[in-house]
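Dear colleague,

Following up on yesterday's call, I've attached the two folding results inline so they're easy to grep. Please treat them as preliminary; we haven't cross-checked anything against experimental data yet. The first protein's sequence and structure tokens come first.
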Amino acid sequence: MPQEFESQQTSASAQTAGQHDEQTVERKESGLAEQASGLDSLLDDIESTLETNAEEYVSSFVQKGGE
């Protein structure tokens, strides 16, 4: 009997561990999606700024005599 009980516990533990792993993967994927969304919005902001002020932005990097 103790061996049967131990086998059932091991099986239940394995299922619980599998469910925990799936939940961890889902959380990581949602976190990555949030980060990607944040990065996309940042890049969109940069792009719109450069569209309106590209010449001014580039001219700030141009070296003027003796600098």
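Below is the second protein, in the same order (sequence, then structure):
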Amino acid sequence: PDLRILVDGDARVYRRGDKVTGRVVLGVENEENVAALRISFSGVCTTTTNRPVYNPHRADATAPMQRYQERVRLFNFEQDLLSGCLLASNKESRTFDFKFPELTTPRYSKWQHGPKYLKSPHPLPPSFQTDTSGGQAVITYFLRATLVRGGSHRPLETQEILPYHPTPDNIQLEPQAYSRVLYAQIWKPLSDSRTTMDKAMSKLSRHRSASNAGPRIVPTIHHPEMIAPGQNIPLYISLEDVSHAPQCQVSQCTLDSVTVKMSTHTTSICGQSASSPEDIHLKRVTCLSKTNLEKPLPFNTKTKLAHNFRLVDDAECVPSFKTYTVTRRYDLSVAVVLKYEGREFTVRFTTLLEILPRVPRELMPGVLEEEEDEPLPPYAPREPSREFAPQYESNFQLEQGSSSETSLAYARSRGSSTTSS
């Protein structure tokens, strides 16, 4: 028998609430006794890993590996298409109709997978596949058609993978920047140049002149907490001098270098065994590195650290998510080197960055649809003008003279070559 699944529409990425329709085609050459023909629509999260088998009597490095695997069914829907019938030698076609659910189905106890994984029903995670340090983590959504025949025949199955991507709840055109004041990184550039004796004398006298105190610089990083693929990542820095002593002539800081890195954290667990082996995969990428900028940084002024700095929409840009046995999160790290009167200081900052699902074009706010290009003005004939017309006579004379000289030089070279031969 020939069993196929034909999904309606072109290849597409499904989202929350989308319908999945199509038909199952069964072709038989001879008369066939069909016990059941059903189709199921499922979402499955599969985690695998390997661990060495401990043997107290064998301490070599070639210890055998034990494979662990856990398969969590996110949801499952079934439809019976045929039941207890006798098919002639022809093709049978049966339609099906499913819909992506809002939430997953299972519910686990709080001791099943640990505190970092979800236990209650939650929004569907995206289609996902990655290699971990010891195995693999895969999240798939698929249709599976199963044909059960009478007698001793084995069931016949076929399946069709359906890519899925979550739908963002709050669609924002521009990400919001939040401020983080780094009080733990207060910089006193002039006090760093004092010797040990100067510091000791300052403590003994309990008096320090305001002219020698210098500024006390508090950095503030302005950053986003959530970002969608393709959006501009706003990154700013501002400096504030919190020294109470008045300064006659205050020098300003300069921005020397900027380095931005993004870290991807993927965890997966197989919780069926008593040990519950867990794999943690970390990947760090340098997104931006600029040196020798020498850019002035006035106090109490926001300064942009990166221009046109966007999140690339590629296969690695998976939205942040948590599910029963897999998690995915991102960190954004910023290192800024400041200079003040020849002295350097590095401001370091790391924050959790949530990557939102990409926004489909059909769900973009209506602001973009209203911004249409202005039509071109209608054509109106006008009198020809000699203002910008070329001087044909002068151009023709120049071209004629240059071409004649070139022809003469070419004729002389031909004549000399003919004479020499």
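For the second protein, one point worth flagging: The first strand starts at residue 2 and ends at 7.

Best wishes,
A.L.
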